[in-house]
Specification:
heterodimer, A: mainly alpha, B: 245 residues, alpha/beta, Rossmann fold, 3-stranded antiparallel sheet, 9 strands
């Protein structure tokens, strides 16, 4: 194999490994923490919408979990993105390495955590007398790739621009919270008023992907139009990220 | 006649002053016209009209006051900065000795950090694994190598960093003020390693404020003052002039 590609792969692997190791070093419960966060969220929304507001829906708990876990991956990565280059200032200023792998390592690390949390989803499916289906075999890899491209594209864009306009790190937090409520995660897309339905489903770049994940987990189906829309958005995010990165990266060492 | 491995040809490097942007939206909006023209016009000149050549196998020292432009030169050689005008030609793999702890993570062990740092600096995993024992032995940190490096002292960190770089087989090695930390024994080891690098034909760029160190290892020295070359020539002559002023 070409030694440059070999090195590139080793670099991604070691940086991802580093993030994995560092994340839970010196903590007692380790892995538990990565699922505790989305589970706590699920509990909060369950209390608010099922217990208090009494949403009319069977299996709301597993419904929440199937949507919150993939969202957690995206939101963790994107919220960490503003710091991806800033935290590595000394490397960027001295070593000419492909810097675009720095945010990639974060995204991959969160992806691995998401994969590790799938058994928890399965556990909840069993509680609600459902089970995994064969369609997971192609559905999970497919959506995984779409979300990887999407998350990496967004992260690369935010990480690059944030070096020049530091306001972006505040904006990212606010924007992700807004986007969360405009994405059918804590409510099914069927409950959206007809007027806004296509708006929320197709104008929000994350809706189609999140709804696809949930349908796959809960009923084992993928809807073509949603998968196609999410794929188109993920390609767009990746191209945007790449374009911004190539335009700005040669000035990274100047601003840090 | 040895071939030049690094050529600076009338290099100018200036930065836009980014603090006009990073100063925040409020500032930007209040002083919009002023700020816009400031962004366009205010540039910080880090280097101007710098020309020199460094030959293969040379140990080249760069001295000068803080902020004179020494690190900018290193950045240009490492390829992380682009010249605003002129040309920078560098032939061969450049490895920079990073400042203390850069490219390391405090929570990882010494061994894990060697892997991380080695790969960041350009080796493949297989290459680092092959050299791992040698690196650990050179560092003299066998006892601590499985401990997280947050328990290391400053000197021990410097040892670890230099040990990785010493085993990278670079064509060009950039050293930015590093030998000051670490005990005498290790400093001696570093100087020996640099001498052996020199024998192997590695080109070394050495930035330092320690004139004894510069005199001990450099063949030629450039004195950077006020963003340009004030003097360039044999180590003895330049250091003499520099310490006299």
């Amino acid at each position: 194999m070409n030694s440059r590609i070999r090195h590139y792969i080793d670099l991604i692997t070691i940086l991802t490994q580093k993030e994995m190791k560092v994340r839970y070093k010196s903590t007692f419960f380790g892995y538990v923490w990565s699922i505790a966060h989305p589970l706590a969220f699920a509990l909060v929304f369950f209390m608010a919408f099922k217990v208090v507001m009494r949403i009319k829906m069977e299996g709301y708990a597993v419904f929440l979990i199937a949507g919150l876990f993939p969202w957690q991956w995206l939101s963790n990565s994107v919220n960490a993105a503003p710091m991806a280059f800033l935290l590595n200032a000394s490397l960027i200023k001295k070593v000419s390495l492909p810097r675009n792998i720095l945010p990639l390592a974060t995204v991959l690390q969160d992806m691995i955590h998401f994969l590790l949390s799938i058994p928890v989803i399965v556990f909840f499916l069993f509680i609600f007398h459902k089970s995994p289906t064969l369609s997971w075999l192609y559905g999970i890899p497919l959506l995984l790739i779409i979300q990887l491209l999407m998350t990496y594209g967004l992260s690369l864009t935010i990480a690059s621009i944030n070096l020049f306009v530091r306001d972006l790190e505040r904006l990212t937090g606010i924007f992700m919270t807004l986007l969360f409520y405009f994405t059918p995660i804590i409510y099914p897309e069927t409950m959206i008023p007809e007027k806004y339905k296509s708006l929320v489903l197709f104008l929000n770049p994350l809706s189609s992907l999140m709804v696809s994940w949930r349908n796959l987990f809960l009923i084992g189906t993928l809807e073509f139009s949603l998968v196609a829309a999410s794929f188109a958005y993920s390609l767009f995010a990746l191209m945007l990220g790449y374009a911004v990165y190539t335009r700005l990266s040669w000035r990274f060492a100047e601003v840090l | 006649m040895r071939v030049p491995i690094i050529v600076f040809d009338h290099v100018r490097k200036s930065y836009p002053l980014y603090h006009h942007i990073t100063g925040g939206t409020k500032n930007l909006l209040i002083h919009l016209p002023k700020a816009l023209s400031a962004i366009r016009n205010s540039r910080y000149e880090a280097l101007r009209d710098v020309s020199f050549e460094i030959k293969k196998g040379e140990v080249f020292g760069i001295i000068g006051k803080n902020g004179a432009g020494k690190s900018t030169i290193l950045g240009l050689i490492a390829g992380v900065l682009k010249p605003t005008e002129g040309r920078v030609i560098v032939k061969g793999k450049v490895v920079a000795l990073l400042e203390l702890g850069a490219g390391f993570h405090p929570e990882l062990t010494g061994k894990e950090n060697i892997m991380l740092n080695g790969i960041i600096l350009g080796l493949t995993k297989a290459e680092v694994l092959r050299k791992l024992d040698e690196i650990i032995e050179f560092s003299g940190l066998e006892e601590f190598i499985d401990q997280p490096i947050r328990v290391y002292s400053t000197g021990m960190l410097a040892r670890l960093g230099f040990s990785v770089v010493a085993h990278l087989d670079p064509a060009i090695l950039l050293i930015d003020e590093i030998l000051a930390v670490g005990d005498l024994e290790f400093q001696k080891k570093c100087i020996e390693k640099m001498t052996s690098f020199k024998k192997k034909g590695v080109t070394i760029i050495f930035v330092s404020h320690s004139m004894p160190d510069v005199k001990r290892i450099c063949d030629r020295v450039a004195w950077i003052d006020n963003h340009t070359i004030k003097m360039i020539g044999s180590t003895g002559a330049v250091v003499f002039k520099y310490t006299q002023k």
